[in-house]
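Researcher: I'd like a candidate sequence for this fold, 314 residues long. If you have to choose between options at a position, lean toward the conservative one.
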């Protein structure tokens, strides 16, 4: 058993590090099996040498995060714990600034890599399970590019592929039938700009949210195009979408390769593109995993259960 201490800047920082009702502290104690207390402006850690060393790194990284962003969420604590216990590097993360000075921040190492890939490449393909921020972060990067006048237009696209239901039996006209498929993209936009601004941009075609079939025959320059749920495109549809790229445009393609709703023996366009375009310049492929899930903690356990991975203790 050994003991070490970490100096804390002030009492407010200590409260933030420990969390409301010590929720962050309990997470760290339980995960690393160490004793943690505070007095004389210091955090005191006691336990086995390896556990104390890891706990020290956790608190140091959390202090750095707190100093940079001014707040600390449960997801931030969980991310740092995973990075330290699994030996992953903690990557620097620059916030994505959207309208009104709002900031969107990737919360996991995988998400940081995804954001950096989108900033550095013209075509990014991202595969990962539900809740890993594939769509949300892509929309944030697109909105930030529009704010910075790097692009003149955002085009958000989804294939209208039925996941066990039939479009023909839904009520309403064509627009009413396809709206449910486009709703996740609209929800992400609403988090990043005021409703009136979003409505005006849509009316002026600065922002388009359309089904994949509407992309045929177009060439888009100075545009940021996002293809969501790309696992449900065929190979020919994927080729059609990717070849819409004009001068000074970017494309992000995202999807979950474990949730393909295409007919049997139909190859997914996303799976094909990940294999076919590997190694191209200005093209990046990013793989997100269950450890990048930032929804309700139960979502990660559900993904693990369906993927056949061992149950995680909570």
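Model: Candidate sequence:
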């Amino acid at each position: 058993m050994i003991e070490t201490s970490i100096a804390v800047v002030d009492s407010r920082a200590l409260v933030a590090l420990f969390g409301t009702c010590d929720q962050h502290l309990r997470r760290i104690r339980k995960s690393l099996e160490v004793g943690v207390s505070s007095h004389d402006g210091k955090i005191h850690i006691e336990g086995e040498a390896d556990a104390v060393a890891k706990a020290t790194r956790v608190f140091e990284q959390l202090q750095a995060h707190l100093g940079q962003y001014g707040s600390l969420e449960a997801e931030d604590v969980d991310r740092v714990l995973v990075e330290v216990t699994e030996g992953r590097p903690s990557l620097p993360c620059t916030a994505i600034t959207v309208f009104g000075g709002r900031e969107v921040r990737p919360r996991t190492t995988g998400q940081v890599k995804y954001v950096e890939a989108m900033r550095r490449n013209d075509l990014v393909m991202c595969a990962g399970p539900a809740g890993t921020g594939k769509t949300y972060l892509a929309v944030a990067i697109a909105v930030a590019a529009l704010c910075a006048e790097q692009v003149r237009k955002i085009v958000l696209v989804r294939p209208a592929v039925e996941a066990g239901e039939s479009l023909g039996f839904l009520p309403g006209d064509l627009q009413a039938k396809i709206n449910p498929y486009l709703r996740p993209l609209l929800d992400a936009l609403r988090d990043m700009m005021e409703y009136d601004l979003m409505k005006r941009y849509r009316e002026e075609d600065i922002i388009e949210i359309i089904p994949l079939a509407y992309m045929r025959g177009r060439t888009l320059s100075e545009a940021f195009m996002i293809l969501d749920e790309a696992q449900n495109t065929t190979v020919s549809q994927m080729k059609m979408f990717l070849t819409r790229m004009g001068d000074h445009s970017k494309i992000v393609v995202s999807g979950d390769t474990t949730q393909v709703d295409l007919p049997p023996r139909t190859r997914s366009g996303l799976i094909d593109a990940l294999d076919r375009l590997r190694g191209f310049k200005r093209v990046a492929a990013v793989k997100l995993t269950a450890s990048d899930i930032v929804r309700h903690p139960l979502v990660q356990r559900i993904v693990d259960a369906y993927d056949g991975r061992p149950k995680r203790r909570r």
